[in-house]
Amino acid sequence: xxxxxxILKPDATKRNLTGAVNAxxxxxxxxxxxxxxxxxxxxxAEKFYEVHNARPFFGELVEFMTSGPVVVQxxxxxxxxxxxxxxxxxxxxxxxxxGTIRKTFSxxxxxxTVHGSDSAENAKLEIxxxxxxxxxxx
Length: 138
Ligand code: GTP
Ligand code: MG
Description:
It contains seven helices and four strands; from the N terminus they run βααβααβααβα. It is an alpha+beta fold. A four-stranded antiparallel β-sheet has the order 2-3-1-4. The chain starts with a strand and ends in an 8-residue tail after the last helix. The mean pLDDT is 98. Guanosine-5'-triphosphate is lined by residues 52, 57, 60-61, 91, 109-110, 112, 115-116, 118. One of its GO terms (cellular component) is cytoplasm. Homotetramer.
């Protein structure tokens, strides 16, 4: 079993869709073993998306991620990292497969509802950025 890090982004909280997204996550067999609703600071968002800091959309991305509350989560399951990426769908919702979270709920590539770690190394780092061990119960 494996753990991945997830964020329900501000477009999800704004539209009151956190339960609907969680239902898709749980239906896919992923267990939500840690969950917290927070307002990200600019510094936190900049650190989290550091790898994208040279991209033209970086400013917009940080602005969006701090525009409202987010739900940070630890998801657990068999091949959780790859499985969640599959359930999320393509970064651009217009290219996302039918039944994925982004195809179902997202309105643009910027406001694409969810984040999921893209590797085991990043999952570990990202979980550690937002969770203490005592706040995860598998
Ligand atoms: P994350 O799980 O959020 O990391 O998404 P991803 O791995 O599918 O995409 P990637 O890591 O390449 O990009 C990170 C995030 O930057 C995306 O989820 C989008 O929110 C945002 N992003 C990517 N491309 C664009 C773009 O062209 N414009 C804007 N505004 N945002 C973008
Ligand atoms: Mg990414």
